[in-house]
Design brief:
Largest sheet: 6 strands, antiparallel
Shape: globular
Helix content: under 10%
Oligomer: single chain
Order of helices and strands: EHEHEEEE
Number of helices: 2
Structural class: mainly beta
Distance between the termini: 21 Å
Strand content: 25-35%
């Protein structure tokens, strides 16, 4: 996976930007601690965006990160991710979008 390039974002996506992400591969923050040497797979994992929805007032809390969010992205995690994770992430969970080498990331299914 050395040839994968990710364009990072400095601010969270808005709903209009997020709607264009369906089918794209994103780099999602999954944990770890940036203050200490941490393997990249403990910090980030790849996921493919399956759908995007605006959150309602009753579903503001993201199941993945626990933050109050405006956007829900339904994702499929990369095939070798063995952790049990929520298939919903928000605009705060995303580190960036894969711009090159996404074909090297495998998923259990094709959309």
């Amino acid at each position: 996976m050395d040839d994968i390039k990710v364009k990072a974002w400095m601010t969270p996506l808005d709903i209009d930007e997020a709607r264009f992400m369906v089918g794209e591969i994103i780099d999602v923050i999954v944990g770890g601690d940036l203050r200490f040497p941490t393997p990249m797979l403990e910090l980030f994992r790849f996921a493919r965006v399956r759908s995007v929805h605006e959150r309602t007032d009753t579903e503001r809390v993201c199941k993945h990160c626990g933050e109050s969010a405006k956007i829900m992205l339904n994702v499929e995690w990369e095939a070798d991710d063995t952790e049990s994770r929520a298939n919903e992430v928000c605009e705060h969970c995303i580190f960036g979008r894969v711009t090159e080498g996404g074909d090297a990331v495998s998923f259990a299914s094709r959309i």
